[in-house]
Amino acid sequence: MQASEQTSGSAVADARLRAVVGLAQAMAVAPDARRAAQTGAARARAALDADFAAVSVWEREHGRLRVLVNDGLLAPGEEPLPEDESYPLGEYPEIAQFLAQRGLGELFTPDGLPRAWVQSAEGGASNGPACRARAASLRRRGRACCLVAPILLGGRAWGELYLARIAGKPVFADHEAEFGTVLAAQISAGLAQSERLEEVSRLAFTDPLTGLANRRAVDSHLDAALERHRADGTVVSLVVCDVNGLKRVNDEKGHEFGDRLLEQFANQLSLCGAMLPGAVVGRLGGDEFCLVSAGPGADEVVRVAEELCAQALTLDQGEGVACGVASTGDPIGPVTTADRLFRLADAAQYRAKSGPAAHPVVAGRGSLPDPTVSLADAGPRPGPGGRRTERRRFRGARHTADPGQLLAATLAVLDERPHPVDTVGRLESVAETVSQLLDAVAWWVSYLPPGSGRIQTVRYGIRRMTRGPGSTRAQMLRAVNEAPDAVFDLAAYPLTLAAVRGGNFGLRTGVPGNDPAEEAVLVVGGYRAMVAAGGTNPAGGWLIELFADDSTLSLAGIGPTLRALVAVALSGPPSPP
Q: What element of type H or E holds 567?
């Protein structure tokens, strides 16, 4: 009997291994991310004897769960490749819990994979909270149970694999939920491969830390909304928020805690934005976020802003938010450009800084003459040709970590340089431009000759000095590391080697698990953090490294953007140093 059970268990393990390998191979040849998701859903459905499968993305910027693909036994109204099948994230408390507790507690397996959970049509659940919306959906579509496995991309929650069985079949068991976790991880890997082909486009419109829309995407959406306003009077509203207390959290606890605070507020903003149909929420950069609404009335938007302020006060860290609202539905005068609406929302948010964080300031709802409108109208006007003026004009910030702005500014610099320009010159333009925008301390450009294992510094820039350890040995190491023609054996620097081959990585001093050799370069140089990205062309391998002190903007999430810019720089005519 025992031998029979062992044989049966071995057969199940072999079948599951074949299923995982087959899923990986099938997704690898898919022509795009959506077809890869379709392939992954079909293979996962077969592997777990489910009747239905779907892959959906959790769109934080819209506050919704959007279905990409459906597979198997479809219910009425379901389509294999739906044009617009979406549901408010607020209806799924388990998703909100997952987003709020990323990387913590029971939501993850000991191996670090996001744990799948099971829901029945009767309302019961295992490995996660019961969700009335999912139970109702199961009953409505004649299904008995579902298994939900989160999908991560780039370490961030991206969406979910959803599997369901019809009535008469057994509810998914715990061991099947564990296998669902493995299948979702493999789908994550397959989607990541497909998504790399679209990386530059995605980075141009997405904030990498929070997953919300970035400034470029917000501008595009706002411009389209104002076109509707000019055409038919559609009410357009803009909410701008600053997260209070971020600098204190960064100074007292470190940038990791500050980034966590930004992510938590982004989740709250996403859920509040879902209360307004069609709204888009985004991060403009640093501690500043916004919401763009087209259609709902001004009072409705203000109610959502009130809710957002109240929710922000419940965050573990921080001190709430300063929130400003400007809407064409209020008496603020003609609004014909996005710049004017931004000026009004900016002015309202600036005034909110001096008031209680529990309430927003709304342009056009003060005493006459309205102080917010007066402040906005006294600010700078658009530049020549209607060009939009710099954001945060009431505070004067001149740096940004927004990927869209980093890409746009750096690509503009590359386009302006005379052609042809050598490889080193193009990489130097990338390094210097991004360093200026991030307020980085220094940058290096390095070169790896074909067939060599030793990388050498070919260009560098120092924007301000840092103080490293005072010992003679540390000072000697720094002098060697930062010599204009420094050479490093890549056998001792595995992260750098992977970056030169087309990857990227970031480090912050004092984080457990850092590579000792890589961190030593930071410590002796007096740097707090760094980000590196590289790539190859026929002339050899190349690397850009940016270094940070306490004044530099957070480098979290900058690696993929820098890698994309390196790829653009290396696409020109190849030339060795």
A: helix 559-570
Q: Which of 222, 205, 223 is nearest to 214 (CA)?
A: 205
Task: Read off the amino acid at residue 73.
Answer: L
- The predicted-structure confidence for 172-214, as pLDDT tens digits, reads as follows 998 999 999 999 988 988 887 665 545 545 555 778 788 888 8
Angle between helices 516-525 and 472-481 (to 10 degrees): 100
For residue 101, the model assigns a pLDDT of 58
Neighbours of 577 (CB within 10 A): 16
Check residue 94 and give left, alpha or beta (phi > 0: left; psi -120 to 50: alpha). alpha
Assigned token pair, 74: 């479809």
Please provide the DSSP assignment of 51-99 as one string: SEEEEEEEETTTTEEEEEEEEESPPTT--SS-SS-EEEGGG-HHHHHHH
Query: Rounded to whole angstroms, how far apart are CA atoms 107 and 432?
Result: 41
**SS3 (DSSP) at 507:** strand
Peptide bond between residue 420 and the one before it cis (omega within 30 degrees of 0): yes
* Cis peptide bond N-terminal to 449, omega within 30: no
Helix (H, G, I), strand (E, B) or coil at 420: coil
Task: Output the six-digit token pair for 437.
Answer: 């925008």
Task: Sort 406 into a burial class: Cβ within 10 Å, 0-12 / 13-18 / 19+.
Answer: buried
Tell me the two tokens of residue 169: 């079949």
In the sheet where 280-285 sits, what is the strand order? 280-285, 288-294, 236-243, 321-327, 361-362
Task: Give the pLDDT band of residue 307 (cuts 50, 70, 90).
Answer: very high
**Residue 401 has what pLDDT?**
78
Strand duo 321-327 + 361-362: pairing:
parallel
| Contact indicator for 226, 335 with CB cutoff of 8 Å | yes
pTM summary value: 0.49
* Cα–Cα distance list, 294 to 46, 238, 283, 284, 305 (Å): 43, 9, 18, 19, 15
